[in-house]
Amino acid sequence: MSERREIVAYARSLIDTRFHHRARVPGHGIDCAGVLVLCARRCALVAQDFDLPPYGENPDKNLMVEWCDKFMGRRVAKADMQPGDALVMVTDKYPQHLGVIGNYKHGGLSLIHASNVANPPRVVESHLTWLPNQRFVAAYAFPGVDLWLA
What we know:
This protein has 150 residues and is α+β, with helices and mostly antiparallel strands. The protein has a single domain, classed as endopeptidase domain like (from Nostoc punctiforme) (endopeptidase fold (from Nostoc punctiforme)). The protein contains 3 helices and 8 strands; from the N terminus they run αββααββββββ. The protein has helices at 4-13, 32-42, 63-71, and strands spanning 24-25, 29-30, 75-76, 85-90, 95-103, 109-115, 122-127, 135-141. The strands form 2 sheets. It has a 6-stranded antiparallel β-sheet. The chain has a two-stranded antiparallel ribbon with strand order 1-2. The radius of gyration is 14 Å and the shape is globular.
């Protein structure tokens, strides 16, 4: 079983990798789904060739939630999220943004995610806050990860 701290550490190793839609190359290019896919591969939670089915730059409706329901572990309540969980959120009209929950250096939770609105677009870690354009949809434990922080 993989430890949550291993997931967070690997997600943080991706920070500053430039944003590139559907890319899965640490240090060169990645998108928000790629952060989850690469963390799961690195921590041996999925096969090394695992990936999502093809998706557009603006996934529609509930594609990302359906994907997470199918491939991630169990859902986690918003109040029970902890470092090492995955998050699905709305950043526009539909649930389309994914990230890994971390522990924010100044307290609370953070989100490690590939942001196409960062300057320059890249993987970043930011304090997890809920804004009108950033709404919680679902959180998940990675498959095979213990319930509590290791």
